[in-house]
Design goal:
2 copies of one chain form a homodimer.
Chain A lengths: L8 H25 L2 H7 L4 H7 L3 H10 L1 H4 L8 H16 L3 H8 L14 H18 L9 H23 L4 H16 L2 H6 L11
The structure holds a DNA duplex.
Chain lengths: 209, 209
Amino acid sequence: MAVREVKQERAARTRAALIRAAAEVFAESGFAGASVSRIAERAGLTLGAVYFHFKSKEELAREIVTSQPDLVVPPQDSHGLQHAIDVTLTWAYQLLDDPVLQAGARLVMDQEHFVPKSENSHQQWMSILLRDFRDAQVRRELRLGVDVEAYARLVVSACTGAQMQAQLETSRSDLPYRVEEVWRCLLPAVAVPSAAKKMQFGRERGVAE
Amino acid sequence: MAVREVKQERAARTRAALIRAAAEVFAESGFAGASVSRIAERAGLTLGAVYFHFKSKEELAREIVTSQPDLVVPPQDSHGLQHAIDVTLTWAYQLLDDPVLQAGARLVMDQEHFVPKSENSHQQWMSILLRDFRDAQVRRELRLGVDVEAYARLVVSACTGAQMQAQLETSRSDLPYRVEEVWRCLLPAVAVPSAAKKMQFGRERGVAE
DNA sequence: GTCAAGAAAAAAACTATTCTTTATCTTAGT
DNA sequence: ACTAAGATAAAGAATAGTTTTTTTCTTGAC
């Protein structure tokens, strides 16, 4: 071949290790508080390795923030309201031991410095939940006249806030419970009673068995 | 006098200027991202002045975070649900141009490093809202069987989250609207219809005329 | 299998800035 | 004028992010 397009497999592993290490350190200390040396050290590598794969600390963080929503895939395939619930619950459970999601949560505020506004994580979650709520509306699960955009925003806000509270008070361990609580508070206002009654929560909704 | 207890008025002004400058810089860049030199510079003072009044950068931040709830005093004196609404709206309006509140919002996650868990800002807001909800319960404004703790937590989470979204998307300017939206979504679930109808929103609830 | 070329990573160097402390000067009260 | 408080200016030691140089590893051609 004329042009070399060599991708070594070792390089891929190194890159993954760096992203994971960076996520851990970002999750602990935020963007400014995390140092590139500490990231390299955590990955068992050196500064040179970092700057070979990423052109700056910002790019490393951007990579982590923008990859968020793809990481959360609910085990069941559900629709409408139940899908909205499943996504948030999956997110909550997965956050418990996925450093990349944890970093995403910690970098929420920092991202304005290195992520284009249209790709920030809030917008991403908003569009997912909005789709679910509209779907729910078509399925006649929602009460008449509910403002779907308002409720989608509220769910995103509430989950973000719940994550922070959980982090401060129980180092995140009860986040899934808090998310479930959010829904139990909200359902009476959004859903028609018959639909509300059908909704399923619990661990099996967020984690594949 | 035997013991000197001299507090110069210049010192008080300097201290206030430092806190304000620190709040501005913390609000822009978070804890780790803010440098003490920049804080001093912003206040029109020097490093020595900072370290004369505060023994470390952490103490400066702690001072700002723990003074939060006292800063928010609704203009009207209301009770029960309406008071809960008033507090959150006042907070939202005041946040628009109070750097200390802005810093408090930005330091939410950082505070775990320098604020004792029992004094973190979430707990402070929780106890205020919890008191209001219990009060509302006594006044028969709430629907039967609502979990007041859950709803108090939800309001705090939702406001925290709303603040972040507002920051990312409109540099905070529509935060009051978003907070009002939170309540409109929530009221049907918490309040009995007669009480919900009576609730008042709008600018006059958050800002003295 | 050998070997050279390029990719991947390590090691080291650079400049700037970090937080904090020290020594020095200025201001205010008695 | 004397003393202590309040502030400046300067310095120190560590670490920041990034770039450059050097070494090690991987790959494909012979």
